[in-house]
């Protein structure tokens, strides 16, 4: 059987499997015209539905790679930033909110232009290009509405509210619109300087934090998190906090709860959320385990945001208490740093650790794009499930949610995601022993669980 026939057969079988499981378990796969909500994505939490969907999508994308003219495939890749540019125009002009308020029949370009303040003819080419990629739909000529994909950019707020308080656009939202805006603004601009940064003999190999693509794009020598604190970046800083909340919303709801066997901790355990941002992980943990004590460590302006968010969402969680057993939680932290700086952080935590301290590091874990016969790291959970042939072993673009942060970290902060072997070696060099990897279904940020190496010389 040819590869193309195999892929078609895989799609056919996967769609049948999806229909069967939906029928059996009463699940619904939403139509492309339906608005995105977290609840409407619930079918993916069913493992069989998740697997069937992934196979169908991975095989369809692989089929496209086989059948589309390579020149067209490459043109899609080479012009990928056009989509980012168009998304930015829409996101910053609140097009998602304007279209939601106009209802499912759609809104004429003239009205969208008037409400968004974008010139009609310019807006037409932006919306039409995105509609060509199923992000928005052109219902009749010059009339546009949402698709499920474009509706992810909707903050859920009214246009009036956004216009009255533009700085707080992303406060108390899921953070997904903030995540899109963050990527298409500072990350997209920075990405244009990836080549210059890599080729520069100083910035390429060393990847020092003040020599990132972002430094070049914005003409600053400040490390990224200092740059965010400049007065002119006040909106970006606020948006970044919300975007991190959006990262959590992209994942199954139990990522942080499944990161560790939390119930094995003593009742007065202390969880230190290192670089905990606006406290998204800590609040989720607090809701499930109010008996523990929590510390969210971050930079002062972020902590101010965290307190504000916490007062709104869970005022009781602001209490603290005594220490017995510590957990250091580093969610989306080590990927921000070069190896040298990640080692500094891990070593400082190792110095502060007691013998019973647990370190949890949550980041994407990079899988090779080819089949790997055996994991060379012998701890439970080390081996990632591979896709069946002829799909790419790492699930191809279905796994983009892992590879995108890898590049985002390089462009925006000079960091990177790591393979398991790479991460393990950093842990060992700083006195931590990797004891297991906790992976969840649909979770693209597994948890590395480590404990102090007892005879390690500090
Ligand atoms: C990628 S974000 C991750 C946020 C959070 N852990 C999460 O998963 O949502 C990295 C966080 O590290 C914080 N950070 C950066 N430099 C720091 C420093 N020197 N001390 C404490 N936190 C810092 C940033 O402000 C930011 O909130």
Automatic annotation (TrEMBL):
Keywords: Methyltransferase, S-adenosyl-L-methionine, Transferase
Annotated ranges, domain O-methyltransferase C-terminal: 212-369
Domain of life the protein comes from: Eukaryota
Family matches, as Gene3D superfamilies: Vaccinia Virus protein VP39 (3.40.50.150), Winged helix-like DNA-binding domain superfamily/Winged helix DNA-binding domain (1.10.10.10)
An annotated GO BP: methylation
InterPro entries associated with the record: COMT-like, COMT_C, COMT_dimerisation, SAM-dependent_MTases_sf, WH-like_DNA-bd_sf, WH_DNA-bd_sf
GO MF term list: O-methyltransferase activity
O-methyltransferase dimerisation domain mapped to chain residues: 77-152
Keyword Transferase: yes
SUPFAM superfamilies: S-adenosyl-L-methionine-dependent methyltransferases, Winged helix' DNA-binding domain
Name of the molecule in the record: S-adenosyl-L-methionine-dependent methyltransferase
Native species: Lentinula guzmanii
Top-level taxonomy: Eukaryota, Fungi, Dikarya, Basidiomycota, Agaricomycotina
């Amino acid at each position: 059987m040819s590869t193309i026939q195999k892929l078609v057969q895989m799609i056919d079988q996967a769609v049948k499997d999806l229909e069967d499981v939906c029928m059996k378990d009463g699940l619904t796969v939403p139509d492309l015209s339906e608005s995105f909500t977290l609840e409407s994505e619930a079918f993916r939490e069913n493992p069989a539905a998740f697997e069937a969907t992934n196979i169908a999508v991975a095989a369809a994308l692989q089929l496209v790679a086989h059948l589309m003219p390579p020149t067209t495939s490459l043109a899609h890749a080479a012009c990928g930033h056009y989509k980012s540019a168009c998304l930015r125009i829409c996101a910053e002009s609140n097009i998602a909110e304007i279209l939601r308020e106009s209802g499912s029949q759609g809104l004429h370009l003239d009205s969208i232009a008037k409400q968004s303040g974008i010139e009609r003819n310019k807006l037409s080419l932006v919306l039409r290009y995105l509609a060509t990629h199923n992000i928005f739909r052109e219902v009749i000529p010059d009339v546009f509405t949402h698709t499920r994909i474009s509706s992810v950019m909707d903050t859920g707020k009214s246009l009036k509210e956004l216009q009255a308080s533009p700085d707080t656009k992303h406060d108390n939202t899921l953070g997904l619109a903030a995540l899109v805006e963050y990527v298409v603004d500072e990350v997209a601009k920075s990405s244009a300087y990836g080549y210059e940064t890599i080729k520069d003999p100083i910035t390429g190999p060393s990847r020092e934090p003040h020599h990132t693509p972002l430094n070049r794009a914005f003409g600053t020598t400040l490390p990224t998190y200092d740059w965010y604190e400049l007065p002119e970046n006040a909106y970006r800083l606020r948006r970044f906090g919300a975007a991190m909340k959006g990262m959590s919303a992209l994942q199954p709801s139990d990522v942080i709860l499944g990161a560790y066997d939390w119930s094995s901790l003593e009742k007065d355990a202390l969880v230190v959320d290192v670089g905990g941002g606006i406290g998204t992980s800590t609040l989720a943990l607090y809701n499930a385990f109010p008996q523990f004590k929590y510390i969210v460590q971050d930079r002062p302006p972020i902590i101010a945001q965290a307190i504000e968010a916490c007062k709104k969402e869970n005022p009781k969680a602001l209490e603290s208490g005594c220490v017995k057993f510590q957990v250091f939680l580093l969610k989306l932290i080590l990927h921000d740093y070069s190896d040298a700086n990640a080692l500094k952080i891990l070593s400082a935590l190792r110095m502060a650790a007691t013998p019973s301290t647990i370190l949890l590091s949550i980041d994407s874990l990079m899988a090779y794009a080819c089949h790997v016969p055996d994991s060379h790291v012998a701890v439970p959970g080390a081996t990632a499930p591979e896709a069946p042939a002829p799909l790419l072993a790492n699930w191809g673009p279905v796994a983009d949610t892992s590879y995108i942060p890898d590049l985002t970290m390089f462009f925006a902060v000079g960091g990177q995601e790591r393979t398991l072997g790479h991460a393990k070696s950093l842990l060992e060099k700083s006195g931590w022993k990797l004891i297991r990897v906790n992976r969840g279904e649909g979770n693209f940020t597994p948890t590395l669980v480590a404990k102090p190496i007892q005879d390690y010389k500090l």
